[in-house]
Request: fold
Amino acid sequence: MISLSKPYIGEAEKQAVMEVLDSGMLAQGPRTARFEERFAQVCGVKHAVATSSGTTALHMALLANDIGEGDEVITTPFTFIASANSILFTGAKPVFVDIDEATFNIDPALVERAITPRTRAIMPVHLYGYVCDMPALQAIAEKHNLRIIEDACQAVGATYQGKAAGSFGTGCFSLYATKNVMAGEGGMITTNDDALADRCRMLRNHGMKRRYYHEMLGFNFRMTDLCAAIGLVQLDRLEDFTAKRRANAHALNSRIESVTTPKVKEGYGHVWHQYTIRVNGGRDRDAAAKQLNDAGIGTGIFYPVPAHQQEYMRDIVGAVSLPVAEKLAKEVISLPVHPQLSQDDLDAIVTAVNRL
Ligand SMILES: Cc1ncc(COP(=O)(O)O)c(C=O)c1O
Reply:
């Protein structure tokens, strides 16, 4: 089976972990600090704050932007559930608006209509590694005095007009094992705002700057130096990883003919966390996925149920109709695009997909 994702764990990652173990300093320490510095450089921002996961990064980024009880945050339903859950953790309410069929991302034209007196922020999700229409979203945010918290969990290294994901608002990244840069588990918050970075660092560590003096209610959302050591090595590989993903996506796009393939608009630097086709025209997506699996091709469905249709979410947001997201949830299949695919793997994927 050609797996959908395959974390790259080389000698350098193993060596880096052994060095941390030998040092005896396992919790957040010098490697985490170095990882933060390097991550900030990669995103072209002043600060990066390491966290225990993408979910905790989102949660803290919202809190640090003063989002809480009674507030509304506009976001996409076509995402991993952590985006919406992080809004709920703060006591705020997610307001879902539909997506643009061409990009799978939140449709800026629909965002403005969803704004109410309670709206405090927009959370765009750069799904599959494709940056949202940030100029349009930034214009809306400026006009209505809203914060932007970017869910860039799938988009490390992605750009719009050369500007990196995570540098348009408060950026949130995941370093989960299958992500383009991984640390096993982990997350990162990126910002140019000194005070906001400071609040995130406090929230991460029980509201503490001086040992055992607690200035605010906080959490233990720290990263371990074991994870940071892996992440540091992976960051050095990012350019190479991204180039390989782009080459793989290009190869698939130029040879797949049987289904709708993903297109990228001018000016966007897609990093292909996922390569996602659409099985449309009344064909059965689940049968197609099974046919691919039977041919030895790993697949993923991201995501089969949009956030607004998850059972517990319906109790919170009521009956909402978001036809584009609902349609795409029934059509999408993600195919392997990871950097470790061989030419034979790509040939096998193309052959199997073109037989659908
Ligand atoms: C779009 C999106 N948001 C949030 C998350 C949450 O990240 P983590 O799994 O590191 O908590 C993920 C990770 O899968 C994601 O893909």
Observations:
- Residues 123 and 149 are 5 Å apart (CA to CA).
- The longest helix spans residues 225-255.
- The chain is about 40% helix and 15% strand.
